[in-house]
Design a protein that fits this description.
2 copies of one chain form a homodimer.
Chain A lengths: L2 E10 L19 E9 L2 E9 L4 H10 L1 H4 L9 H9 L2 H4 L6 H22 L3 H6 L3 H7 L11 H10 L4 H11 L1 E9 L5 H13 L4 E5 L4 H15 L4 E5 L6 H11 L4 E5 L7 H11 L3 E4 L6 H9 L5 E2 L8 H14 L12 H16 L8 E3 L13 E2 L2 E2 L13 H6 L6 H4 L3
Cofactor (chains A, B): Mg(2+)
Pfam families (chains A, B): MR_MLE_C
Keywords (chains A, B): Lyase, Magnesium, Metal-binding
């Protein structure tokens, strides 16, 4: 099956106008996608890099840099691990990472588009497409380079085989109840107290058992907002806090001591996502508050160390910063170390694509939803052909074939940057 | 002083034809530069990202993404730390890293161009421009975010103050003798045995006391080549080996056991540059062979951990993967932990720019050349207006103002990709 063309679109949403998505490090994001359409003889696959505005064109350039490796070549849907390695091991493009930054994100978008296509060809939503593979097939998707000191392919096969009993029951339960979610909608830093209180109250009424607040810009403000949120939701609802990498190690520890009276459930991104040892030090100091990170963790090697060092309680993979094949490796590592995966989502389209990974994890890898929640943000879902559905605080399991990554043609056209109507009409 | 324009050039050299630069991970590099010219009212500054071919255009796109933050703004040559932070803290562009990959390399190229200009305006080579700053001024260049658990700005000032005695003598010695170099010229993987033996013999005759061999593709071959090299140079010359990230942790340990009889001095890039804990495990296992890495280490946070974890004996910063301000922080961290810095060089222009950092380190930071050597590769120097000069195995201290980053206009024109004459005329 031949790849006919690789299209890349620069698509941006002017979200900074409403301070949706504002946090201590990212005051004015314009949620954006470097959007891929992989045209093949068997149909189209869709994927994207998620960015927050400026620089989206760099991801578009990076996607185009892979074109000579993709267009015109045979795509074997039974060897998507090999396809991904062909992109990720290209020595010249790898030099720009290695395995991080714009080229790694671009490769992930293309790999995800190939999985979207493969699931569509199989007539299954991606979560079921992955869960239906044999353990050996799942293990073959991953790139095991740099991982074998923590987990070997043979051990991973064993781990997946151990998870097979109960699969049918879990799948039925997932289809019936969905996958547990938490919501970040109330907690953006730019929101007023009234808006925070109203959205927090609504979240509880809608069935969510966890919300998340952005923190890290001003300690007194954070203490006040956290107190307000705790008062509104009561003691039975988990409140996670998220500093978006704002602090040094010592600062993180001090700040969390001040927030401790309000019983934060986890502190997310307390410091640089590169700082494995820093997260380990913070975790030791702020327990029983949990430490979470992952949305900016560059690759499986970094996650391996976060797990080896005992640096995190919660692993927050992102469905677009690395592709499906690498996320399969990350899910296997998390299972090996017994750390729950609570993925990052939000932005544009991240909820749509990442739900498939959590559901695959539940059915075929960890086999559990214990202490696992999937982030939900109520933004921009209307631009997708198969948007997420939240029912009583749970993600409903998608039934349509594919990875739910496809944007509506009119959304692509209107939000094309800089020529689309939305950008031309901005005041 | 206003920035008038930010130019970005895609410049490539067809080095893959001769297998110059071939190693176990990079079989066919075409050394390339995403080259920056910073035009200001006070003159021009030059800098570049180094890449190995495909993807150079992604760095060009990333440089252009910074244009709105640079062109038309005032550049205060007395606050280059602030200028660098203005680029590196841009939240939207930072999202593509953070602080890694194409955008981080692009910011580094622009920051380096600003330092090239500042040194030219001061009428000094960069090494002397930096060494003549007061300790507080040097410390103000660095971005201390994420570093304070290992080194505070106040401690860094103290460290620099402690290094002040003997400066004049060191500077005089440097100008007289130069800075010790080692050569990678003999060791590329694609070279024949005859070429390896001839170049190794020549290196010793020219006064080098250390050479480096690429390894990692085939163990039997490596044992044979290492034996040949040791036979040619004798026991008194250090032979470093470089695996260019080819191995997993266990593999690295086994491979180095097989090479141990030939007394390798250091093993460079045994595994992923992201694997701090992996390097620490390898170091424990292969001692007394030293462990070195750095050319692909993304930023100061990763170096901080390599030092905190006792993972490296030799720190190999690269002058282009991060900019001068970040390399100042890295030199300070290395001094704090007592680890010698032996920078990565080679490629195109890396020798020219990095020599300034080693010489600054010697005069003003570590104050020592003990166990410090600067990589030298005899490639492509003829394209620079102020090329490095090697005298009896030492880099001669540059005397011309600036960072030695400027390419000749005819080299830029001939190697412009894809339109330059060198590329048009390729068979």
């Amino acid at each position: 099956m031949k790849v006919i063309a690789l299209e890349a679109h620069d698509v941006r949403f002017p979200t900074s106008a409403a301070l949706d998505g504002s946090d201590a490090m990212n005051p004015d994001p314009d949620y954006s996608a470097a959007y891929v359409v992989l045209h093949t003889e068997a149909g189209d696959g869709h994927g994207f890099c998620f960015t927050i505005g400026r620089g989206n064109e760099v991801c578009v350039a990076a996607i185009r840099a892979y074109e000579p490796l993709v267009t015109g070549r045979d795509l074997d849907l039974d060897d998507l691990g090999g396809f991904a390695k062909g992109l990720l091991h290209d020595s010249q493009l790898r030099w720009l990472g290695p395995e991080k930054g714009a080229v790694h994100m671009a490769a992930a978008a293309i790999v995800n588009a190939a999985f979207d296509l493969a699931a569509k060809v199989a007539g299954k939503p991606l979560w079921r497409f992955l869960a239906d593979l044999a353990p050996e097939q799942i293990v073959d998707l991953a790139d095991w380079r740099y991982l074998t000191d923590a987990l070997t392919p043979a051990d991973a096969v064993g781990l997946l085989a151990d998870a097979r009993p109960g699969r049918a029951e879990r799948e039925a339960r997932l289809v019936e109840r969905g996958y547990p979610a938490y919501t970040t909608t109330p907690g953006w830093l730019g929101y007023t107290d009234d808006k925070l209180a109203r959205l927090a109250r609504e979240a509880v009424a809608e069935g969510f058992t966890q919300i998340k607040l952005k923190v890290g810009a001003d300690l007194d403000e954070d203490v006040r907002r956290m107190g307000l949120a705790r008062e509104v939701v009561g003691p039975g609802i988990r409140i996670a806090v998220d500093a978006n990498q704002r602090w040094d190690v010592g600062q993180a520890i001090e700040w969390m001591r001040a927030l401790a009276p309000f019983d934060p459930y986890w502190i997310e991104e307390p410091t640089s996502p590169d700082d494995v040892l820093g997260h380990a030090a913070i975790r030791r100091a702020v327990a029983p508050v949990k430490v979470a990170t992952g949305e900016h963790v560059a690759n499986r090697v970094m996650f391996k160390q976060l797990l080896q060092a005992g640096a995190i309680d919660v692993l927050q993979l992102d469905a677009c910063r690395v592709g499906v094949t690498e996320n399969v490796a990350i899910l296997l590592l998390a299972a090996r170390f017994g750390v729950p995966v609570c993925p990052h989502a939000g932005g544009v389209g991240l909820c749509e694509v990442v739900q498939h990974l959590s559901m695959f994890d539940y059915v075929a890898v960890s086999g559990s939803t214990q202490d696992r929640v999937l982030e939900y943000v109520d933004h921009l879902h209307e631009h997708f052909t198969d948007p997420v559905r939240i029912v009583r605080g749970h993600y409903a399991a998608p039934a349509e074939p594919g990875m739910s990554a496809e944007m509506k043609p009119e959304s692509l056209a209107d939000h094309a940057y800089p020529g689309g109507s939305v950008w031309r009409d901005l005041p």
